[in-house]
Amino acid sequence: MGTEKNEQEDRAGVQESQQDQRQDDVAKQRQGQQDQKVRDDHTKKPDRKDGSGEPA
């Protein structure tokens, strides 16, 4: 009874770990990108007109 639940949790943990590893591998392929730039590129806010790099 209890072991079946543990086995399900173990499988879920393994799947989560594999997903994390895949995400890490993808992130390593994007060398040179900065998180803030990627975030800014995906935001719909207009650029600031005061010259700072932060979105409005």
What fraction of residues sit in β-strands?
under 5%
Number of helices: 2
Distance from first to last alpha carbon: 56 Å
- Poorly predicted segments: none
Instruction: Count the E strands.
Output: 0
Topology pattern, helix = H, strand = E: HH
**Percentage of residues in helical conformation:** 55-70%
Profile the largest sheet: none
- Structural class by SSE content: mainly alpha
Would you summarize the structure shown here?
Residues 1-28, 36-56 have a biased composition (Basic and acidic residues). The chain is an all-alpha fold.
Describe the structure.
The chain is an all-alpha fold. Helix content is 62%, strand content 0%. It has two helices and no strands. The protein has helices at 2-29, 35-41. Residues 1-28, 36-56 have a biased composition (Basic and acidic residues). Residues 1-56 are annotated as: Disordered.
Any chance you could write out the topology, listing elements then pairs?
Elements: H1 2-29, H2 35-41
Biased composition (Basic and acidic residues): 1-28, 36-56
Region (Disordered): 1-56
Could you name the key traits of this structure?
mainly alpha, 56 residues, 2 helices, elongated
